[in-house]
Amino acid sequence: MASQSEVEAAPTEVVAATAIRAFYEQHPYPGPVDTLDGQRAESNDRHARICEHHLFWPAEPFRESRSILIAGCGTVQAARHARRWPQARVVGTDISEASLRATRALKERYGLGNLELRLLPIEESEKLAETFDQIICTGVVHHLPDPDVGLEALRKVLAPNGAMHLMVYAPYGRAGVYLLQDYAQLLGLGSTQAEIRDFAAALKFLPKGHPLWPLLRNSPDFQYDAGLADALLHPQDRPYSVPEFLAFIARCGLSFGRWLRQAPYLPDCGASHSTPHHARLVALDAAAQYAAMELYRGTMLRHSAILYRNDEAGADTAISFEGAAWQGYIPLRLPETICVDEKLPPGKAGVLINPLHTDTDIYLPITAAEKRVVEAIDGKRSIAALATIERLPESGRALFQRLWQHDQIVFDASRRSAG
Ligand SMILES: C[S@@+](CC[C@H](N)C(=O)[O-])C[C@H]1O[C@@H](n2cnc3c(N)ncnc32)[C@H](O)[C@@H]1O
């Protein structure tokens, strides 16, 4: 028989779930669009797909076909994936019919026969009665009444060699958001159009030093109603610091693969490389390094990571510069990266940037010899072969490790002949 406390607990969760569903029926996220044109990485961009594949599975040969679950897909994410991966089977789930309707319209417009949509809570993902090679769940589990229940349910439908992209909010960079969520609660603000309009007007007068300011200026979410409501008026929102995130995924049977973009978490990248603390930072274990960098940077808004089942993740998912296997890795330049040739530091011939980094201290100056090697990266030659182009120290190990740490390249480690 259920105890008194169990009887009282159940309705609270149901009330929360109902409030979240009602919120997303009223404010589908992101604001619905009627075109997929202009979205990053168009469907015919095979190189982008190869890079994405090896980001998730460095040691698995590239393949176009796979099953992808987009859990909590919102208005556009599932359609975007179905278009980018025409040979994949994509299933999008959400609890908001309004969001699914927006996705359905894109499906019809672009003839996305490989996309299936289901009105289904993440917590009930097992009802899909299949497992997926890839699960993408971004911006969702931190909104669930019990995030552990949601992530455990996703873990159950992750195929044995599957990989998951999970994104959750981070606390420190969003401090201003949480101040204003509490403020809204004190005022009893709801999320009607009139209340959102008034809130947007009040934010225009926010004192300049308020911690929300950088977000108001830079985040696209604050430029439209659904984004503003999602950030400031959400009925349920729980951020995770790095240690909380790592404990969360471990509790739910998942192991950490890598950060989607790792440079901000690494003391070897950006300003921390030059501080007197660098030696102390790199002496920490990896988890403590990530935690320290989150505290030092102070501006991280979210954590986006690639995860595996904890009963499957083997050495094959990890890139390593120990031993000799790294010489057989085939580097692939990420499509978004650029090389700047102006205002260079002395002795440098270029500065490599990944524009998806929001931290302006993360960039990689390279010499003329290094630049020639970087320009020779063709997705065919291994590190060992590329290192013969110039006399690089350590046969290129330091250069390719730095390129990888700085999110300039990923590796195809599926063909490990060092030639
Ligand atoms: C902030 S939006 C993110 C949408 C999308 N993942 C993206 O990154 O663009 C959160 C989405 O999760 C959905 N959602 C919330 N709780 C859910 C649940 N229990 N099961 C499935 N979807 C849920 C909402 O309806 C909404 O569409």
Explain this structure:
The structure is a single chain. It is globular and about 65 Å long. The strands form three sheets. A seven-stranded mixed sheet has the order 3-2-1-4-5-7-6, with helices on both faces. It has 15 helices and twelve strands. It has two domains: 239 residues, Vaccinia Virus protein VP39 (Rossmann fold, 3-Layer(aba) Sandwich); 88 residues, no CATH class. The chain is an alpha/beta fold and 419 residues long.
Q: Tell me the Rg in angstroms.
A: 23 Å
What is the subunit arrangement here? single chain
Task: Give the rounded overall mean pLDDT.
Answer: 91
Q: What does the largest sheet look like?
A: 7 strands, mixed
Q: List low-confidence stretches.
A: 1-8
CATH homologous superfamily designation of the largest domain: Vaccinia Virus protein VP39
Count of discrete alpha- or pi-helical segments spanning 4 or more residues: 15
How far apart, in Å, are the first and last alpha carbons?
67 Å
CATH-derived topology of the largest domain: Rossmann fold
The assigned CATH architecture of the largest domain is 3-Layer(aba) Sandwich
Name of the level-1 CATH class of the largest domain: Alpha Beta
Shape, principal axes of CA atoms: globular
Bound molecules: S-adenosylmethionine
Per DSSP, what share of the residues sits in E-state strands of 2 or more residues?
A: 15-25%
